[in-house]
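Supplementary Note 3. Input sequence used for the single-chain structure prediction.
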Amino acid sequence: MNRRLLARLLAVLVVGTSSLLAPPVHAADETADALINRLSTEVLNSIKADQSIQAGEVSRIIALVDAKLMPNMNFKRMTASAVGPAWRQASPEQQKRLQDEFKILLVRTYAGALAQVNDLTFIVKPLRASPEDREVVVRTVIKGRGDPIQLDYRLEKTPGEGAGWKIYNLNVMGVWLVETYRSQFVQEINGKGLDGLIATLTDRNKVNAKKG
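The predicted structure, written as C-alpha cells, is reproduced below.
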C-alpha cells in the first residue's frame, strides 16, 4: 500500500473537528452512518479553513482531537485492543500512559499529511444493519485524484451518559488500524514488558517531535 495514501486517509480519523455553523446533534439519536457522514464533512471543512492544521501544528491538532474527536471515539477500547491481552494486567496509570502516548503517536505520524486532504471527497454507503445491532461497520468511499479508496469504520453503540455510536477501529483498503499496531505492540511487550512499550512509544514520540 502507498504509505502516503495511507497517511492521508488515516489523518481523517486522527483529526476530527466541528463546523461552527453545524446544528446541535443529539448523539443518542444519531445513526452510525449519519455520524460518519457528519464527521467526514466537518473534518474536510475544518481542515480547509485552518492553515495551522494544514501546516501540521501538533499542539493545535491535539487540542482539536481532545475537544472534537474523542467524544465520538472509544479510544480506551482502541488502545486496549492494540495492546492485546497484556492490557488486563496494566495498572490504571499504565493504561493512561498507553492511551496518551498512542494518541500522540497517531497525531504526530499523520499530522504532516493534513495539507494533502483538500482534494478528497467522501461517499457514505448505505448502512446494512438492524436497529437492534450494537456494533456495525460503516463503509465509505474516498474520491480524490486517483482511484476511489475504501475506508471503513467499526462502531459500537454505548449506553448511559454520553450514549451514542463510538468509533473504535478503522480499515483502509483491507488493513485495520488496531490490528496493525497490535502486532508491533505485542512484540514490544513480549520483549520489554508494558513499561518497555510505554518507553518505546514515548521515545518514538520524542523523535517525531524533533522531526517536526
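Confidence is low (pLDDT under 50) at residues 14-24. The CA atoms of residues 150 and 173 lie 6 Å apart.
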